[in-house]
Amino acid sequence: MRLSAIGDVCHAVAMVTRIQTQWPDAHITWVIGKVEHQLVKLMPNIRFIIFDKKRGKAAVKDLKQAVKGEVFDALLMMQVALRANLASRVIKAKQRIGFDWARSKELHWLFANKRISANQHAHVLDGFMGFADALGVPSVDKPAWRIPVSNEDREWGLQQAKALGNYVVIAPAASKAERNWLPEQYARIAEYIQNNNVNVILCGGPGSLDRETADAIKQRAGVTLQDFTGKTSLHQLLMLLKHAALVIAPDTGPAHMATTVDTPVVGLYAHSNPQRTGPYNNLNDVASVYDECIKEQKGKAWQELPWGARAKGDTLMQRISFEQVKEKVHPYIA
């Protein structure tokens, strides 16, 4: 059971792929959010149950009906939110595996009868792998992701890549405005990239923050940027990310989607620890001011604080300099 969000679902896919690889005969049911399902809906040999949280109690009623009469060997409770914990009560399972004590927020521990092993300072993806460990699934050398797309979307992606040539994707908008870099800084890095003969495209979802952020960047850039914001399905976006030379993004879904298709990512971080939530394959490529922000606010280094401690403030991302990002971007476009 992992309902949201896109980035976390990408991390969960690695764990599911491990189970499918090592236990190919396993029967998997995934309770997942409505939007997130659009990304993974073509994964083979998985029964999806869509949980639309906007429907409130009706969503729980639908889930109860969907699993009526079933008893699962194990329920992997991979979300600590109280909404997910309460919904999980309608699922009958011999083992109800939850997070370890340190990560059991919002009364999560009350709904589990078994816990994964503690893993101090673990990336979210590695934390999810603890659920496969608890089941006894053999380990793998490194995470792998299998997110199929249709032939139509694959061909669409190839056509876009051919038209765009060598390009970098900027996915500038996180779910909250405070987690976004300044539009003028995005514009500067876009100019720098295009002045190195690499095209830049903007991507994002259909929400108003994504649209406003993309427009603000285009207004400030001294070069023409192609804009796919709000114009793609999740699978089309995945294909755009797949063929890119690089993705630049804050802590947002497209950064983690890019990781699933082996595209390098320069992540931008201030509020959350990139060692916990950064792009898994590019943790050394982040432009981060998190360490200094959290120490200023808490008086201690993050290593001395509870794992997952967040820095707060509306202007923290402004502390990421153009030069920081340029230094990380340069090797991929030189």
UniProtKB/TrEMBL annotation:
Domain of life: Bacteria
Keywords per UniProt: Glycosyltransferase, Transferase
Alphabetical list of Gene3D superfamilies matching this protein: Glycogen Phosphorylase B
A GO molecular-function descriptor: ADP-heptose-lipopolysaccharide heptosyltransferase activity
Any single Gene Ontology cellular-component annotation: cytosol
Biological process, per Gene Ontology: lipopolysaccharide core region biosynthetic process
PANTHER family recorded: LIPOPOLYSACCHARIDE CORE HEPTOSYLTRANSFERASE OPSX, TETRAACYLDISACCHARIDE 4'-KINASE-RELATED
Name the record gives this protein: ADP-heptose--LPS heptosyltransferase I
